Amino acid sequence: MELRHVRYFLAVASEMHFGRAAARLNIAQPALSIQIKALEEELGGALFDRTSRQVALSPMGQIFLPEAQKIMDQANQARDAARRAAKGELGSIRIGFVGNAFFSGLLSQDLRQFRAACPDVSIELCELPARKQADQIMHRTLDIGYVPDFNTPRHPDILCQPTGAWPFVVALSPDHALASQSAIRADALRDERFVIYALGEDDGDHLQHIAAILGYMPQHITHVANTLTVLTMASAGLGIAVVPETLSEIRIAGMCYVPLADARQTSQAAILSARHQVSPIVLRYLDIVGQPKGVK
């Protein structure tokens, strides 16, 4: 049984007239009669009681009618779902992020924007180090990644799209000798213990980035696993941290944020995705949220 046969049956059942049903379907009446006859032969009985004056549903036709309508309704739903999926309006998307993307508000802002445009897309979030995000995107187990951009070489199949740039500030406890300064120069931090967010194989890139910001490699370093720990340790006087200005929006009791006066770089953020992208949802996401934000 073909879907067109069901559609033809429903048209005749609605019009109760082969001529009008044929005109509605834009086919010749003899062709419609042949198709209905083929359907009846397949089902093993007459769907209509025909006389020279009228057409009526047979007992079998009356039973078949609601089932045929269900078939058409399901087919229409399937068609509409497929069309929405092709537009990136239906399905799911897997997004990885580092803590800075969350605490800066960048990720939340993008998710709100995407949700408003595509409310029926399911969003899966996972906090991951930058390199693991790239690896998972390569293996198609992650669709989008939010990472700091250290301008390091990436695999040619990974697309890195800049999404924001912000100045740096120094996070430190209020009783630190430099906390009262209106701005802090990098040289004034040479003897300080730096608390940095770095995990395993990501440490090298992060350390080199800190050195590029300051103009020298810090001599005293504490490595921690997430952004919140960085800020907690800095507020407790267990070190200082150089962080993007966006993190100063996070209010932690006993925390001061002072601009870094002579930072040699800005804090760059980027969105990672597969370069040869075929997912309509991912393409839609990149189109919606892809404009750089917060550039100063």
TrEMBL record:
Domain (HTH lysR-type): residue spans on this chain: 1-58
Pfam families xref list: HTH_1, LysR_substrate
CDD domains: PBP2_LTTR_aromatics_like
Coiled-coil region(s): none
Alphabetized PROSITE patterns for the sequence: HTH_LYSR
Cellular component per GO, a single term: protein-DNA complex
Family as reported in the entry's similarity comment: Belongs to the LysR transcriptional regulatory family.
Protein name as annotated: LysR family transcriptional regulator
Source organism per UniProt: Thalassospira marina
Record lineage: Bacteria, Pseudomonadati, Pseudomonadota, Alphaproteobacteria, Rhodospirillales
